[in-house]
Amino acid sequence: MTGLLEVDGLTKRFGGVTAVAGCSFGVGAGSITALIGPNGSGKTTAFNMITGYLRPDAGRIVFAGRRVGRPDPGGLYRRGLSRTFQQARVFGELTVEENLVVARGYSWPALFARRRTADDRGRAAALLAEFRLSHVAGLRAAELSYGQRKLLEFAAVLMSEPRLVLLDEPTAGVNPVMVETMERHIRERNAAGTTFLVVEHDMGFVMRLCDPVIVLDRGAPIAAGPPAEIQNDPRVLDAYLGD
Amino acid sequence: MRGAGPARAAVIFGALAVAPLVLSAHWVVNLLIFTVMYAALASAWNVVGGYAGYPSLGHAAFFGVGAYAVAIWFSRHDVGSGYRPFLVLPLVGVAVALVGLPIAWVAMRTRADVFAIVTITLLFVVQVLAFNLRSLTGGSQGVGINPPPFPADTYERPFYYAMLVLLAVAVAVSYGILRTKLGLSLAAVRADEDKARGVGVRVTGVKLLAFAVSVGIAAMVGGVWAYYISFVYPQFAIDPLVTIGMVLMTFLGGKGTLWGPVLGAFILVPAQQYLAYRLGANQFYLIGYAAIFLVIMLLLPRGILPSLRERFRRRPGPAAPAGAAVDADLAAAR
Amino acid sequence: MHLFIQAVILGLLTGGVYALMASGQTLIFGVMKVVNLAQGAFVIAAAYLTYTLFTRFGVDPFLAILITTPLLFGLGVLVQVAFLRPLRREDASELSLLVTFAVALGIEGVLAVSYQTTYRSVQPSYANTSFTVAGYQINAVRLYACLLSLAVLAGLYLLLNRTRFGRSVRATVQNPTSATLLGVNSSVVSAVGFGLGAATAAAAGSIYGVLYPFYPGSHYDLISRLLSIVVLGGLGSVGGAIVGAGIMGVGSAVIAVEASPTWSDFSFFVVLLLVLLLRPEGLFGARARGAL
Fold first, then answer.
1. pLDDT digits (tens, 9 = 90+) for A101-142
2. DSSP state string for B19-68
């Protein structure tokens, strides 16, 4: 199997605690893969290693056929691997539009160009329209509601036209209407060719949207497969209910 | 609206250019030199402390290195018609900027608090070096520069215009940063560095660039200062009060704005000189300075320009179109 | 070798006094996230107070500590309440650097006006007494000073670990928000914490005046050393500050005898840079992970 993302034997310890233990899985191109598991099962730690925020103690990460070397979130982003954070993180002092423009993953020469070129604005405008944020484009991001900030963060990481987007709990803390909106955006983007890896606690959301579903427990996958299979897997129930 | 910034700059620099011709008393030009000097220093500091959000307390070290570079060279070489020291300034600036890169690389691995500590420690270390490298710096005896053959009547003018050019450089660099994606990247770094890394902002690169440019300008200003006062001692060339001056003026005028540091310098330097004049050489001066300092921090922590901008923004008006905030930002910065 | 061991002894004794100042510094950071640039000025202020008490009233410098610590505790509380508490939350850590620097300048100014800018020192009769142990000279004042520092540090340890107030302080250090939710009065903890930090500076300052000559500008030398120590040990870690002070004391004493006294501070800074290169959070500091 050759996926867009291959994780092999990934391990991370914090002091005496092993957060991720020999974790191996793949994310197939074009899929919406879910990464679920009980609290403390190592999902976010795995995310942080995949996206270059944490240095793994052991293991290999291959993205788009290239081994990921030293932790470098920016380099990965420019190569097409984006992520969002559990607590939506946007640049509060920048405007909504600037939040998009800044996230385009510029090469050095482009940094000396004007703050917002017509091209930047065009691309940002298209994304803002897609995410129904056009009316707040000029507001400072700090002035948005939490749900809007989640949408903005999602929209912003699409500025670089990524191949793989890692979403860390896209529905955490937002209202049911926003959950549906989020779901629709992920579907649309996926139909257009973007691959997703989603960490999520809302099982309804996962079961509707994701295939395959990978279940982590104590830092390693214990099951993987289509949602219907996972739902009926006794090991998964055990992991969630405790033994 | 485009062009308003350059027009404003032209008026300000035009007025500053004729100032010493109109007010030609020696003490006035002397005051102008120090005011413009601090305006340039504060503008340079603002690039790192304001735009990037890294409060350096070590800028006086680079100011001092520039001062010593010029002083040491021209204590051993002739100044010719008097303009040679000004001509070597770009060299000093570039050299110090290059030296600043590895220093920034180490120091900027830390965040705000520790960065401030590392940079202030750097300042004291450079001071120790200036005291200890006697064969080079003359230690506490200092270094003297050969005096230039400028006419006594207008002796200060070349120094003033050199400072003014450096201020123009500092403001132009700041303007360039604000107008380009460098400024946007730095704003992202200031707001949330980890997140910025994750959306492909070249965090390390823009930070190092900002630091290098900033200390390069500070060094050139130091070079002119050394030449003007013609004698360099460690405790005055590398003085924490110089750093604090830059920081305070930037805070007073408005951190992260284009003209804030300049405004701050034009308020504080004359006030400082007045205090020193009224309170004389005795140390009441320090107490007065500390008091002004505390009052500014407590009453105007955001600075004059941002406070004014806030006032304007609150004014009811039509809904802001896309990008209005940054335009307002740049406009207020002008 | 003899000289080397002699230097190590001297360094450890000196380190003891610095440990006292630095533990206050790092305590203040731990409680309030404030880098107190006035810590050196507090030390020098206490040294001058001790000077006055000694020359005017004949109070022994070690006894003077009983007077200087409460006074500086009060000054610390005053500074916190008047200047640090009103700062806006968002940029409090940056502004507090500047505010404490201003306080340092103010103290320097007051001292310079009251005592002029010449060097002073406190010279009790036993200032130059020393013992000889196994062929090594141990200066009496330094030994007493180091012992006293250790005693004060032990007291601080007990205060932090055995009292209700100490629990509040430690809770605030670990997580200010939860501490507040658990009923810790954070404004009282901050004020008292800052006062305690200043008080340790006072205790160290009374001794400092006996060990070294000082003038109002001496706080610059002190603050650069203190900051190096706390960064080396890890900001906010009292244990780290003590170890950092030991390293600094021994390191500079050894370099002073092996190379030259003028280079001892400099080489210490090189060590600091190397540490930061490898561990930006310092030897014992918690690794800041941002919001990850």
1. 999 988 888 899 888 889 999 999 999 999 999 999 999 999
2. HHHHS--HHHHHHHHHHHHHHHHHHHHHIIIIIS----S-HHHHHHHHHH
What pairing do the DSSP bridges indicate for beta strands B143-144 and A195-199?
Answer: unpaired
The CA-based angle A162-A166-A171, given to 5 degrees, is 125
Look at residues B157, B136, B148 and name the one whose alpha carbon lies nearest to residue B85. B148
> Is 60 exceeded by the pLDDT of residue B323?
no
Query: For residue B122, which amino acid is it?
Result: L
Closest C-alpha to A104, from A143, A127, A134, A78? A78
Q: Are B128 and C266 in contact (CB under 8 A)?
A: yes
State the Cα–Cα distance between residues A166 and A48, nearest whole angstrom. Answer: 10
**What is the C-alpha to C-alpha distance for residues A158 and A190, in angstroms, rounded to an integer?**
12
CB under 8 Å to C45, separation ≥6 — which residues? Answer: C72, C75, C107, C111, C202, C205
Contact at 8 Å (CB) between A194 and A139?
A: no
> Is residue A25 classed as helix, strand or coil in its secondary structure?
strand
Phi-psi region of A51 (alpha: psi -120 to 50; beta: other; left: phi over 0): alpha
Say if residue A227 is preceded by a cis peptide, omega within 30 of 0: no
B176 CA to chain A: closest CA distance, Å? 8
**pTM reported for the whole predicted model:** 0.87
CA distance C203 to C206: 6
Mutant choice from C95, C101, C111, C271 vs B, greatest count of B C-beta within 10 A: C101
Contact between C240 and C282 (Cβ < 8 Å) = yes
Does B290 contact C105 at a Cβ distance shorter than 8 Å? yes
The whole-angstrom distance between C136's CA and the closest CA on chain B is 30
CB contact under 8 A, B326 and A95: yes
Distance CA A229, CA B218 (A): 66
Chain CA centroid to CA C267, Å = 20
pLDDT at B330 (0 to 100): 45
How far apart CA B258 and CA C79 sit, in angstroms, is 33
The answer to whether B283 contacts C117, with C-beta atoms less than 8 Å apart, is yes
Can you tell me which residue has the tokens 């004042």? Answer: C141
**CA–CA distance from B70 to each of B61, B222, B237, B306, C45 (Å)?**
14, 8, 12, 37, 38
Band (pLDDT 50/70/90 cuts) for residue A203 is confident
The verdict on C172 touching B (C-beta cutoff 8 Å) is no
Contact A102 B197 (CB under 8 A): no
User: How many Å apart are CA B206 and CA A91, to the nearest integer?
Assistant: 17
Beta bridge partners of A196: A32, A165
Output the average pLDDT for chain B. Answer: 86
Return the partners of chain B (3 or more C-beta pairs < 8 Å): A, C
- pLDDT of C136 higher than 70: yes
* Region for B42 from its dihedrals, namely left if φ exceeds 0, alpha if ψ lies in -120 to 50, beta otherwise: alpha
Residue whose structure tokens are 């040990």: C233
CB contact under 8 A, B121 and C272: yes
Tell me the residue length of chain B: 334
Alpha carbon of B181: minimum distance to chain A alpha carbons (Å): 4
Q: Which residues have CB under 8 Å from A16's CB, separation 6+?
A: none
Q: CB of C17 within 8 Å of any CB in chain B?
A: no
Chain C residues whose CB is inside 8 A of the B57 CB are: 97
B191 Cα distance to chain centroid: 23
Please name the residues between 64 and 123 in chain A that touch chain C, using a CB distance below 8 Å. Answer: 85, 87, 89
CA-wise closest residue to B199 among A73, A15, A85, A136: A73
CA distance A150 to A152: 5
Q: Does C277 touch chain A (CB under 8 A)?
A: no
